[in-house]
Amino acid sequence: MTPLILITLVLLWQFVLLGYTFTLAGNAADEAARAGTAVPAGERQAACQEAGTDKLPGAWSGTVSCVTGGGYVRATVTLQVPVLFPGSIGFPFDVEGHAGAVEEDRD
User: Which top-level group of life is the source organism from (predicted)?
Assistant: First the structure.
């Protein structure tokens, strides 16, 4: 019975990490898009990427891509889901968070 309990706990913990990774990706994308709208047009890309990576804990490294145009800033954050321990190896699939915000006219 003990191995079954341990396997169940490990699977539950892995699902918690998966959910937390989705939450982190969405929050980082929201922050990145919001930061990209609050600066002049020439600085939007850098501000967006910096804000997105700033909101991620050290064990969750990922990529932040920001697209501006048409009066809209779109941010996508891609993270890898860790296996059992954050900062260790990851699963072969990525989790993406997407967000967008309307550009403020600060030119």
Answer: Bacteria
